[in-house]
Specification:
alpha/beta; Rossmann fold; Dna Ligase, domain 1; 4 domains; seven-stranded mixed sheet; six-stranded antiparallel sheet; flat; binds coenzyme A
Length: 706
Amino acid sequence: MMNDLTYFFNPRSIAVVGASYHEGKIGYRLVYNIVKGGYKGEIFPINPKAGEILGVRVYEHLNAVDAVPDVALIVVPAAQVPDAIEECGRKEVKFAVIISSGFSETGKSGAEKEIASCARGYGMRILGPNVFGIYSATVSLNATFGVTDIPPGDVAIITQSGALGLAMIGKTAVENMGLSAICSVGNKSDLNEADLLEYLMTQDETKVILMYIEGVKDGERLVEMLKEVTRRKPVIVIKSGRSRRGAIAAASHTGSLAGADNVFSDIMRQCGVLRAETIDEAFQWCSFISESPVPHGENTVIITNGGGVGVMAADACEKYEIPLYDDIAGLEKLFGPAIPPFGSFKNPIDLTGQASAINYAQALNAALESDTVNAVIAIICGTPDVSPEILAAMVKDVCGQFKKKEKLITFSLFGGLETEKCLSMLAKERVPAYGDVYRAVSSMGALYAYRRALAEAGESSCDAVIDVDAGAIDALVEQVRAGGRFFLLAHEAQEVMKAAGITVPRTEIAATLEDAVTRARAIGFPVVMKVVSRDIIHKSDAGGVILDIDNEKEVIDAYEAIMRNCRTKAPSAQIEGIEITEMVSEGIEIIAGARKDPSFGPVVMVGLGGIYVEVMKDVAFRAYPGERRQLLAMIKEIKSYPLLLGVRGAGRKDIEGLVEVIAKLGAIVSRCSGITDIEINPLVVYEKERGVKAVDVRILLSGDSK
Ligand code: COA
């Protein structure tokens, strides 16, 4: 198979199988765009009528072409695609881009699989079916049926939606953003996002990659690839299907399983990918990031001539995690000379409405020349006495000076018609100037987020091997599954924990009343007693759980009460014994888990535990494997993290022990194929020397015989 996509993105020649003589047809539009777009290679339109289209010789069939095209665009009706692919394969075409629809997206998966397998047999790669084609700036190839003039540039787009992709091409021109490449992935019968990323990662012409995603298949490979790409260049992603209704719509649009949105978001963050909320935001980030240097630090100042907008900018900075430089003495020294009376040098630097152009220039210059300031958010409110042309020229000039010094700058210009005129002049020059202050700040926030991801990716970490007895766990799981049960009973789940080296409360199973007394005495009071029965799932509801048992007499009373309650509430349940467990002392109750996610494979999670997990929804996720420092980052993301650091005089908890448990859960799910889900709630986390304890463990098994 051809894994190198150089000739996919830079074909020396291209065939259009299904080139049409009729202007309204896609087969005509493709030839038109390729010719008018100034493609540098050879074009071979294929149509049984032969002749010429737009002055280019048309071949009766592919075999009539002397050369071997690097890429063949297939634009014949679905029924004719298999023959066309066979012909391309025989001709030794390297890549086929199947534009035709009517395959798995309409339920016809069989035909699509046959085509993919035929291509594989010839070592030919396929993009599609059901794509809009490809644009590649390096060879001036517009092999799409969208607009003809695509501005070349440094942003590459990979999209799961073809129609949206075509619309994005149109929008790039409006937003003055140039493209290095764009293609849709369609039904992904062969090439997918990860394959395309692998090439674009090394392509010098692409500075930023934008992806539109509805759902993820083969997420494990995508995650690995994204981690690699973001070390070299920023990736911005827009994912639809956030809401329940949106997810249903995505499923019927591209057959994508949207998956849990928070899992997607957290895993993208783990990969260093920036997730934009809207297409507008994504485009804005692409433009800003591709035009701006990555600053050396994050000391940011807001310079404004309007106090109110300055306050709004400060709010926006908090939202987008931009640290405002706040060394008062340093700020006064730097900006004091530029500030008129009544102004303020406490970041935001408020020059007030009285500020002259000279004051403003002086403040910007102070930031530019300073060794401590790395970035400026410059806000200009209504400037009636300066023409839009002059203002635009000034802003552009300042922007250039900041760039030269590898400092960040973004502008917010707020005012009437003249200001709007100025903004549109600046947009054409790709100067980051926006009407709304939040937009100005959001772009800078995205670049900082990328900068932090880069720094984190650069930190090397040498993790100790995760010690889990997978053999013992597999044997136990197989035994249970052989009995036709697909979840573990509490004592079996505890065995799994022990095999992984995760501490559980001391537990014994008693078969008789006397046995219960002896075992409780051996464990030490207080203890908890619980019924053991595969027929009673909700033990508390059946009166099968009694806490805080302090002595032998209470053991006898509890034993009798549990038996009586369960026989009344679940008369047909088979009772296998009574579990006696050490009563766990108080600590911070955490929920920790791991599961095989349908999109991403093994995923681990952590959150605030206890009975209100569903209400609090204070959870974070990571794809597994992740380094221990990434697991620590996940723990830090939950709102309850300060509880682990210790509040109101309490000491710091055993966070390292918690990281270790999560790593072990991930290892179990990825190494033991019979287990799909593990959830510990509560996992009680104590102060450092006292470790963690898995109190309640639920484990689900896979239903198939893998
Ligand atoms: N080899 C070469 N050319 C062939 C051919 C063959 N085996 N069989 C037919 N042709 C020619 C036809 O003669 C025709 O040319 P003409 O118009 O000059 O007569 C041309 O190929 C197109 O064939 P036609 O049967 O007219 O198809 P069409 O243009 O109506 O539709 C598709 C073809 C692929 C566009 C259509 O089937 C389709 O799938 N449309 C949806 C595309 C889409 O939306 N994709 C996803 C985008 S995100």
